[in-house]
Write a structure and sequence with these properties.
The chain is built from six helices and seven strands; from the N terminus they run ββαββαβααααββ. With about 160 residues, the protein is an alpha/beta fold. Helix content is about 40%, strand content about 20%. The protein has a five-stranded mixed beta sheet with strand order 1-5-3-4-2, with helices on both faces. It has a two-stranded antiparallel ribbon with strand order 6-7. The relative contact order is 0.14. A hairpin with a 5-residue loop joins strand 6 and strand 7.
């Protein structure tokens, strides 16, 4: 169930934005529509006892701030900033501003490069990010290639000198 929360209490930072970049034209259009009285779907937030971390609705949240709205409708659930980051990775697969390939890649990479989430199966990451498991496999392979290219090893060569490979 949604409730109205103070616009100044929402957090749009902290790694909860899954998109590669904000679309300022969309924010401007949303802000104008909000000022005109148009109703928008509630944003999705995780409340940690202090902050409301937006995980879905960054464009709407920013537009509400620009429009100087004091309150915004939100679906609130208890959790942590980390919970909001995880939830954000699967935001907007079927609604709102369509995700770009860069948006999908950013969300997947956020999970793959995390110490905990990166250990999950490709199918679980795909489920959380609303993409195909083959997309995850391709990105995992590219990470492995980059890691092997950056790997260095010290050894003693045949002349007894230390070298790096």
């Amino acid at each position: 169930m949604s409730e109205f929360i103070a616009t100044k209490s929402i957090r749009l930072d902290g790694g909860t934005q899954p998109r590669a970049e904000m679309n300022n034209d969309v924010v401007t259009d949303y802000a104008a529509a909000m000022k005109a009285g148009d109703k928008f779907p509630p944003i999705e937030v995780v409340y940690d006892g202090t902050d409301h971390w937006v995980w879905d609705g960054h464009h709407r949240g920013r537009a509400a701030q620009i429009a100087n709205l004091t309150k915004i409708e939100a679906n609130v659930q208890q959790g942590t900033q980390r919970d909001a980051i995880l939830l954000s990775c699967g935001a907007n697969p079927h609604h709102g501003l369509q995700r770009t390939n860069a948006d999908k890649r950013r969300a997947v990479m956020r999970l793959l490069t995390d110490d905990e989430w990166g250990k999950w199966s490709s199918r679980e990451i795909a489920r959380r990010c609303a993409v195909s498991h083959t997309f995850i496999d391709e990105l995992r392979a590219s990470l492995a290639t980059v890691a092997s290219e950056n790997y260095q090893r010290d050894y003693i060569n045949k002349h007894g000198k230390q070298s790096t490979m």
